[in-house]
Amino acid sequence: MSSDALKKRKSKVVRSEGGTPEMKRGRGDGEQHDARVYSEDVELDARDPGQDYLQYKESCESLATLMSEIQALKANGAKDGCAEVEQKRMQSCIHFMNLKKLNRLAHMRLKKGRDQTHEAKQRVDVLHLQLQNLLYEVMHLQKEISKCLEFKSKHEEIDLVSEEEFYQEAPEQISMPYVTKTDPHQLTLARLDWELEQRKRLAEQYKESQSTKEKIQKSIEVKKEHLTSLQPGLNAIMQASLPVQKYLSMPFEQTQKQTEVARHLPPPLYVLFVQANAYGQACDKNLSVSIIGDVDEAKALSKPPDDSQDDESDSDAEEEQEKTKRRRPTTGGQLDDKRREMLKRHPLSLCLDLKCKDGSTLHLYFFYLMNLNIMTVKTKVSTSSDLNTAISAGDLLKSDTLLSCLYTSDLGRDTPNPANRYQFDKVGIVSFADYLEELGHPYKWVQSLGGLNFPDDASEGVCAGSSLSASQMESTMKLLRGRLQSRLALQKQFASLEHSIIPVSSECQHLFPAKIISHLAHWNTITYEEYMTMPYTRHVTDAGLAKETDLYFMSVVERGTARLQAAVVLSPRYPEISPLFSLSLSWKGERSGSTDDNLRAMESEVNVFKNELQGPRPGHQLLTNQISRLCVCLDVYLETEGQDDGVEGPREFPREKMCLRTVRGPNRLKPFKYNHPQGFFSHR
Fold it and tell me: 569 has which bridge partners?
């Protein structure tokens, strides 16, 4: 760049700053110090921000234009030292200087605005503090005013007599009506004086009554000592009278003890205790009731907790909380504790002993689940003599099956209380049947004996009462005794059947011919699943006559090469519901009721015409009579079956039975009906 260009550039810079080059040099040399000093703060107050913004936009546009022109000149081949390029550069520098000044002014304007804002905030804070102080003073004054208004004198707590009684009862020197009727303050003072006089009189009366009470107390203590001295003599008399009580069957002492313990029974067990005792005394001398369990624990449940116990429990709770903080129980452990608490039984329970004529006893243990509000029962059977333990009779006297379906469809596997389902969901109990072995069975008739009623419609609620228990007591006791007798009879029969002996009572001998050749070869139990898979029992299962609660057996009757299999369904309500037989014959092929009309007729003989085989009431011999009838029918079936005349030799099944006609009708049915006393067989 040439020296002339540099001089021109410097002169332009000096002019843009507001003076000539000579003036700049003069200022730089320290001259003219008395001239007016330039201040941007003063200039800032005089400048308009809007004009600065417009000047900023113009400078930016001019700068962009100069840059584009310089670029165009260089693109056209202009060199760096060209005068036109240098001039535009100088103009660009001037615009840059102007932008820097505008930027500086903008920052100063921003700082000034912030300072003003800060000062305004400080003023607002000062005013806010003053307002808070005033509000605090107002609140303090309001509290003082309310205290003054709420002030109550001690005399206001005294329940004074009414003004009418005061003027009627108080003497004139105290009431002073000529003063008190016009002055409320004097009236209050007079009433207080009268109250004081009355209390002095009452204090004197209290002292007199206290002395009288002490005299009476002393006389009571003397009488107590006399009665206490009588207690040993009365105990000796009671002990001496025990043989007389036992001989007269009047156990007063035992009854008194049980009555005292019964006070701590829960309401359902208490209702059952009272009704069972009443029924035993009035109708059934062989029914006895006893209370078992921890009486002290039951008393603790009925007592309200004391304050001292609350303090101890609080300290124990704090210790338990500290322990739990150290080691928190798992979620599974918490659920187990909740389940145990949900299924907790009352400490006391009832035992009903139901004796039969043959010496056997049915022990019924009744429990009450406090949180579920239901009753459960467990059973135990004791006999006077040891029964022959039959393998097939293993489930007859079990607690799970002994009382099943005592009433129709009452399986006792699920809780009858609808509210328990929601309680089980909270603690994760899927089915109450998983706890039957531990807690017992919640039969519906058990709830009725305890006065509990859980209708299907939950909106009707639960009602408890002795009338419900009394209405069910007699019928239930009869059913229980009948169930025990039928199971014991079945157990004896099963013991004989397992040894291939069909016991027939003397009262039922006339139902069968004198000679029965077919015999029982096998008797055993089968499962419900095995019964369902048999092809010849399909008609029973399809009709819904086989249920999981029934007992299932397999009997095999044989004669020669013929083998008759009979699948038996035994209902828990036997003999009220008769056993159901399904037959399959293995002789010259496999035959069943669906393929052979005569086998279907044999099933009808034992299933349909069961009333002929019932025997004497209550009909415990029905099962063995049905099996005997089955043997007779097999004899008739085999003896009347046609034989091939081309085969030489004796008949496999010679005719032993007398039949009027061997077959009849297009189905070729055989005569299975036995006619007594003629002794022949005929068709039905």
Answer: 552, 580
* Residue spans of alpha helices (H) in 283-435: 295-302, 307-326, 331-342, 399-402, 419-427
Q: DSSP secondary-structure letter at 610?
A: G
What six digits make up the tokens of 34? 């008395």
Encoded tokens for 425? 């969901």
What integer pLDDT is reported at residue 23 of this predicted model? Answer: 38
pLDDT value of position 158: 80
Average pLDDT value for the chain: 83
Residue 553: phi and psi, rounded to 5, are -140, 160
Nearest-CA neighbor of 643 among 560, 577, 566? 560
The pairing of beta strand 562-570 with beta strand 551-559: antiparallel
Could you give the C-alpha distances from 448 to 90, 181, 196, 280, in angstroms and in order? 115, 72, 64, 17
| Identity of the residue numbered 603 | E
Give the amino acid at 598: N
DSSP 521: E
CA–CA distance, 523 with 630 (Å, rounded to integer): 14
Tokens representing residue 316 in the block:
């124990």
Residue 112 CB-half CA count within 13 A? 11
Calculate the CA 506 to chain-centre distance. Answer: 56
Domain limits, the chain:
38-111, 175-240, 263-325+334-485, 500-643+652-682
Instruction: Give ∠ CA 173-177-179 in degrees, rounded to 5.
Output: 95
Q: pTM for this structure?
A: 0.59
DSSP code per residue over 95-111: HHHHHHHHHHHHHHHHH
Whether the predicted pLDDT of 193 surpasses 80: yes
pLDDT exceeds 60 at position 4 = no
> What is d(CA 466, CA 657) in angstroms, rounded to the nearest whole number?
61
Which segments of 3-82 does DSSP mark as H helices, in order?
3-16, 21-28, 40-46, 49-75
Using alpha carbons, select from 520, 549, 552 the residue that is nearest to residue 533: 552
Give residue 92's identity as a one-letter amino acid code: S
Contact 532, 543 (CB under 8 A): no
Picking from 583, 604, 601, 595, the residue whose alpha carbon sits closest to that of residue 665 is 601
Strand-pair partners of 583: 566
| 238-290 confidence digits (pLDDT tens) | 777 777 766 666 666 667 778 888 888 999 999 999 999 888 888 888 888 99
For residue 155, the cross-strand partners are: none
The pLDDT confidence band at residue 456, using thresholds 50, 70 and 90, is low
Asked if residue 305 has a cis previous peptide bond (ω within 30° of 0), the answer is no
Contact status, residue 582 vs residue 596, Cβ threshold 8 Å: no
The closest alpha carbon to 683, from 667, 666, 659, belongs to: 659
* 81, containing H or E segment: none
- Cross-strand bridge partners of residue 441: 377
Rounded to the nearest 10 degrees, what angle do helices 49-75 and 83-150 cross at? 150
Which residue pairs, CB below 8 angstroms and at least 24 apart, start in 534-542? 534/567, 534/582, 534/584, 535/592, 536/565, 536/567, 536/582, 536/583, 536/584, 536/592, 536/593, 536/594, 537/567, 537/582, 538/594, 539/582, 539/593, 539/594, 540/569, 540/580, 540/582
Q: Provide, for the chain, the percentages of residues in helix, strand and coil under a 3-state DSSP scheme, each rounded to the nearest 5.
A: 55, 10, 30
Distance of CA 258 to the CA centre of its chain: 33
* Structure confidence at residue 266 (pLDDT): 92
426 and 242 in contact (C-beta within 8 Å)? no
pLDDT digits (tens, 9 = 90+) for 551-575: 999 999 999 889 999 999 999 999 9
At 478, phi and psi to the nearest 5?
Answer: -65, -40
- Of the candidates 615, 619, 502, 611, which has an alpha carbon nearest to the alpha carbon of residue 556? 502
